[in-house]
Amino acid sequence: MSTPLIHGYEVVIGFETHTQLTTQSKIFSRASTSFGAQANTQACPVDLALPGTLPVMNRQAVERAIEFGLAVGGHVSALSVFARKNYFYPDLPKGYQISQFETPVVQGGEVEFFLGEEKKVVRLVRAHLEEDAGKSLHEDFVDQSGIDLNRAGTPLLEIVTEPDMRSSAEAVAYAKELHKIVTWIGICDGNMQEGSFRCDANVSIRRAGAPLGTRREIKNLNSFKFMQQAIDFEILWQIEQLEEGRPIIQSTVLFNPDTGETKAMRTKEDSADYRYFPDPDLPALKIEQSWVDEVRSKMAELPRAMAARFVKDYGIPEYDAITLTQTQAMSNYFELVAKESGQAKMASNWVMGELSRRLNAAHLGFEACPLNALTLAALLSRISDATLSNNAAKTVLEALWAQPLEGLTPLSLVDRVIDQKGLKQINDTKALEQIVDTVLSANADQIEQIKAGKDKAFNALVGQVMKATEGKANPKDVSELMRSKIAAL
Amino acid sequence: MSELHDLSLKALSLAIQNKVVSAREASEHFLTRAKAHATLKHALNPLQCEENQTSQSNSCGAFVSFNEEFTLHLANQSDQRIAKGQARPLEGVPIAHKDIFVTQNFPTTAGSKMLEAYCSPFDATVVTQLQQAGMVNLGKLNCDEFAMGSSNENSAWGPVKNPWDNTRVAGGSSGGSAAAVALRLCPAATGTDTGGSIRQPASFCGITGIKPSYGRASRYGMIAYASSLDQAGPMAQSAEDCALLLSAMCGPDLDRDSTSLDVPKEDFSRHLNESIEGLRIGIPKEFFSDGLHPDVRSCIDLALNEFKTLGVKLVPIELPKTELSIPVYYILAPAEASSNLSRFDGVKFGFRAKDYKDLDDLYRKTRTQGFGEEVKKRIMIGTYVLSHGYYDAYYLQAQKIRRMISNDFQEAFKTCDVIAGPVTPQVAWKIGEQINDPVANYLADIFTLPASLAGLPAMSMPCGFGASSMPVGLQMIGNYLQESKLLNVAHQFQLSTDWHTKTLRGAK
Description:
The complex is a heterodimer of chains A (489) and B (508).
Chain A: E1 5-6, E2 9-20, H1 59-71, E3 75-76, E4 79-80, E5 82-86, E6 96-100, E7 106-107, E8 110-115, E9 118-131, E10 135-137, E11 146-148, E12 155-161, H2 168-184, E13 197-207, E14 216-221, H3 224-243, E15 251-256, E16 261-267, E17 277-278, E18 285-286, H4 289-298, H5 303-314, H6 318-324, H7 328-341, H8 344-361, H9 373-384, H10 390-400, H11 410-421, H12 429-441, H13 444-451, H14 455-468, H15 475-488
Parallel strand pairs in A: 14-15
Antiparallel strand pairs in A: 1-2, 2-12, 2-13, 3-7, 4-18, 5-6, 5-17, 7-9, 8-9, 9-12, 10-11, 13-14, 15-16
Helix pairs in contact in A: 2-3, 5-6, 5-7, 6-8, 7-8, 7-9, 9-10, 9-11, 12-14, 12-15, 13-14, 14-15
Chain B: H1 9-17, H2 23-35, H3 46-55, E1 63-65, H4 68-83, E2 94-98, H5 125-132, E3 136-141, E4 161-162, E5 165-169, H6 175-182, E6 188-193, H7 199-205, E7 208-211, E8 231-236, H8 239-249, E9 280-284, H9 294-309, E10 313-317, H10 325-340, H11 359-370, H12 373-386, H13 392-412, E11 418-422, H14 438-443, H15 449-454, E12 458-465, E13 471-478, H16 483-496, H17 504-507
Parallel strand pairs in B: 2-3, 9-10, 9-11
Antiparallel strand pairs in B: 1-3, 4-5, 6-8, 7-8, 7-12, 11-13, 12-13
Helix pairs in contact in B: 2-4, 6-7, 8-16, 10-12, 10-13
């Protein structure tokens, strides 16, 4: 495995990702976590850090962390410790953030994905539970800042990798895979615009074989596109610095999507001493093996396992299996169609092709697919029994899109549409022969060309036959018939 | 019948339930007495301010706020319940709360300018539980700022004067609670104990107070000083009264306090009358070192002799890390405090300085002006010991020794049932005497700190009078969750002695 070099430098990237967990209530209080409410309406006395309030651990958040640990093959700590990270900021009501420092809830694990044809593995250092801060609103006020504490106390799982990535493309592929895992197991809604999945990228460069270079951390990358742009810019910036003899200073940088540039916020020198110490308000978090087992028993099949099963059970190519397991909704849809129609490869082609195209155009996911999976299965069965040509089936699908069953079985609904549209394939050889004969007799010139070996002319004649049948003929049948007729002439 | 305010809590409770006196009469009686002892500086309540003008010189400064309307409303409710035969265990009996417990119907200041006008939107669990037992909230009591101190001189609302000698301190940090009970301004009060804040003022003022095992009483709504040590407890005239109060105050509060113990509510009175013959009381030799003043020592010796006549066996024990409890405590408690008090930043509630340039200036000025000297001192100590490069040497080391101190107690309890000794090395000192000598102040906590660090139940009860006729307290420490044993021993002692019934009048 070769490492890509840029101007002779090797790029080293590590990630820290904050995933907002899908719990009903906050990590240490009972206030709601839903997004978009009026400022400060979802903050209870605990979130506001009113005197006398105390944190109480939300078990749901712990379960989400256990699920993640199991999904990435990490070690779920039997005992983990909550610590206070002390610093002053107006959107941090207690003056400290409750996080995990020395003993995180998940240790190790790895994320596997394909970068083109190449299989990559990124090792995880840890994943730890912590609370989110509130939001400072600087724009709506003159000479003042607003504070919205709705987000304060929202549960986060921070996932930290080893510095295993060697290019921006690999970093983005990792982030996409991680995004897929957390949304697949349902611990995070993955909404990057709303900040549910925020990535920080630690980027450094070095001469091949040299020790790690000084890193700069790009904060809050909230789209895959910006992630790639920001890392690419940062790499070139760092190379330029080193080439011009300027050292890299460890710092935190922000990416500006308008300029496409990264810019330092603060350097390591003025970074705070957070004075971490175990939070005396929270006993160590105990996770018994029985709890882990219980969570495991309720977990959905993971994408990697499911893809392997698809290859084995349905005989589809690995590429198809990986594509189909992008989301749980998509994989469920495929599996239902494959089972019902008995045509796994055809199901795979349609789900990855025609259906995905239509859903993308409508900005819909498979969970909101207007076409019932059973209806698609019925449609496919009409292709496999030669009632429909592939092309005709697309026309039928168009008509079936968002068509309710109205008490019909999927198959009778499909048949009704086929009848209405008159798309039933001409399987009557005599009738087809007549049409072929008519076309051939009218195109003596073309036949000469075909005999001279011109395939283009042949295709044109097939097209004429298809047109004459209004697409109802099977193009394969037409070709075969025509070849034998021409050969016999 | 003796005067209403001289009745024990138990006797008063019976008198109210038997309609000898109404809850309203009791509340009015105690309110009148209490209002004469409001703090000098606190100006939240206009009524109180006005009264202060007239009664300044005689006030001991125990009470910081009243809400007469609310108090009488509760008292009326109690009378209605009694009339309907629906009386709860402590129906209609007044109680006052240390101003460290947040309350909806009274301001809560924690003795700090930082919270001068703060009103909580909820009641502390302890306050709710006592109210649900039928008790009537009489008002809030002065204390050292954020419960930091052992003389009550660190309150922004002025010191609490010792009822036995108003030139002396009442002790702290629950000084208002101790003085109020000693002066019979209320039959009972709540206190909190982090390093001795119930036991030491109880000892200085000649009353009985108990700090239960860590986790027995909910900390929800108790403004945190040092979270791993803070524990609420009752302060009253006797062990018997404390048992009644403690039964109402304690119980699991798992939905609000993660350090709350999952042990069922308990009737701490159930063993009071059992004989203590054959009981083994451990006497730690470290508690009788040269630092112990002879007058205090002779009172303790007398008390221990009294126990002998009750058939108790005195067993010498060792608590070898006793001295280390001072540095350990003064590292761990400030460390936690420095973080706990970060929320007082002038942004969301409480005091905010005027005329600040920017955010950092707002923080700096607010905290400089809002906190008193002792609080700032402890925040700085705590910040220091948690800092990068010092954490291992101070905080971690202190945690290790804390565990050793706990282990020493477990070792000791192999040979004894309860431990007894002095609460403090000396009686209450003069106001202002130690204010410039912080080390002397901290050293005075030596006998109360070990039980706090170990999370054990411990109490103080009167056992005589020392120098200048000031009260002396006997400390008793029990094993984990052994409060009822402790109270049993104390009650038996109080059945055969009368130190706890000596009122100010009797002493003077």
